[in-house]
Amino acid sequence: MVDRDGRLGRLLASFRPKSSYSAEISDNGALARLIARIPPGPVAEMWAADVLYVTTRNFGVLSLAERGRYVFAYDAILDALREEGFLDRGAVANLRQLRFMKSLYRGDATGSHGVVGLKVQSALAGLPHGHFPRVSSVVPAASVLSAPGPAESGSAYLLLRDLEKRLIAARLVGCFPELDDGLVKLGRWIRNPRAYANLAAGLAPEFRARLAALQDRHLLSRAG
Question: Dihedral of CA 43/140/223/221: which sign?
């Protein structure tokens, strides 16, 4: 590439990195808090490991950038966070395992109940508690479906991962066979990150309401 008129050079010379990423770090903390309460079962545990991997990497990129260090490879991020005093050696070892668990979840692998959950708890124990939940608690699937969602001003990615957790819960309470075309579409969005832009904030409340309604119908049919 040739910069004939020097425009690219001027743009690069005028670039000044942000001195603070506090807003982005706060948003990442909201995403991490999704794993504070998860439905039971190995699928939910692997979902939590996936979200924790994403948020650990985001936290590393943003926190290190505030210190003038621009690191993007996951293992290098963990090493740099340790050098900066965010993590100790044991925490780094536990957090390295998240990348493998993430790949299992994305590849539809099945896991043993409780095994991945213990690894998630170990990983959380070494992360800064001001930015991550202290523990990931297992709660009834029904309470996940009925819980309030994130603020609609949140990012499309935050809304998507919250809905993904609710979809896992819906399967557990026996609602999944009843999912209509709109909810099946949500499943396709989860599989296709390029579709995040389609998850407008206005759609998230509708999907949450439909998942909760499926649960109510399921409970009524069982009572009858």
Answer: negative
- Per-residue pLDDT tens over the stretch 30-51: 999 999 999 999 999 999 999 9
Q: What do you get for the CA distance between the two ends of the chain, in Å? A: 71
Dist CA 208 CA 214 (whole Å): 10
Question: Which positions ≥6 away from 30 have C-beta within 8 Å?
Answer: 150, 154, 158
Higher pLDDT, 178 or 111: 111
CB 165 within 8 Å of CB 47: yes
CA dist 48 and 46 (Å) reads 5
Q: Alpha-carbon distance 19 to 192, whole Å?
A: 33
pLDDT above 90 (res 16): no
Taking alpha carbons only, the member of 177, 180, 181 closest to residue 221 is 177
Nearest Cα to 48, choosing from 123, 140, 109?
Answer: 123
pLDDT at 223: 47
- Under 8 Å between Cβ of 176 and 170: yes
User: What is residue 149's three-state secondary structure?
Assistant: coil
Which residue is associated with the tokens 């706060």?
26
For residues 48 and 37, the answer to whether their CB atoms sit within 8 Å is no
